[in-house]
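Appendix B. Chain record.
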Amino acid sequence: MSDETKTRRNFLALIASSAVAGGAYVLATNSTNANQEQPEPTPVDQEQREATLVDAISRRDIVDVREYGAAVDGTTEDTLALRRSIEAAAPGGSVRIPPGNMLVDRRYAPGAIQLTDAEGDISIIGSGPSRSRLVMRSGQSDPHVLLQIVSESNQASPNVRVGNITLDGNRFEQNGGPGHGIRSLASGGHLTLDNCVIQNTWNAGVKPTGHMSVDIRRCVFRNCGNPDIGGAHAVSPNQQSKQETNIRQCVFLNTAGADIDVGIDVDVDYVTCTIHRCY
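C-alpha cells predicted for this chain:
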C-alpha cells in the first residue's frame, strides 16, 4: 500500500473536513475543504465535452428515443419508449436523449431503466445536463431507481456509459423510498459517468453495490439524500469485491449525509476510491 493510500481512520484524520467517510482504502489528491464555498462549474467547454462523448460512439449506432415514441415533454411518461430504445441500441450502441424533460416510472422493476445482460453494453447520452433531464415520476412509495444495472449470470461484464444529462430523482414529490439515482448490482464490468448532474434523490446519488468498477468525472451532485431519514450519501461505493472507484472534478451541493461514503469496516480490502479535485 502506497503512502498516499489511506485506511478509513487515517483518511478521516487527514481530511475530515471534506465530508468523506468510509471503510475502504482511499486516495485523495487536490481535494478542497467542503466547508469552503465553491462555485458550481460553468459549461466553459460544454460543446467540446459533448462532441468528445458523441465522437467516441459510432454514429450509425445512435438511437433517438423519439423514434420509439418518446414525447420528452415532462408530462408524458416515456418509460416504455426509453426501454425500447435501449433494446434497439444494445449491445454496443447509444441512446440519445434530446433536449427536454423525460418522465419515467419504476413500473415493474425498481429501475426505471433496468439494464440486464442483454443491454449491458450501452451508452445513454443527453444533449447537455442543462437541456436533457431524466425525471422520476412523482408519488413513488416503493424502492425506485432511475438507472439500475443488474446481472443474470456471473459471467456478465456490462460496460455502461452515461453522459451529458441530468438524472433527477424528484425527491420532494415522492412518498417514500429507498430511491437512488444510479445503482449497480452487476457481477462485473464498468460504469462511466461524464458531465452529468445527479440530483434530488431520496437516498444515494450513485450506489455501486455489486462487482462493477466506476469512473465519475465532471459531475455535479445536488440534494442527494433525505435529512428526515437520517441522511444518505451522494456517492456510496460499496462493491463486494476488489474494485476501483475514481471520482474526478466533481462538485457536491447540499448532501444530507457524506458527500462520499466508501464501504463499511468489514469491506476494508474491497474498494479503492481515488478522489481528485472535488469540491
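Further analysis of this model is presented in Appendix C.
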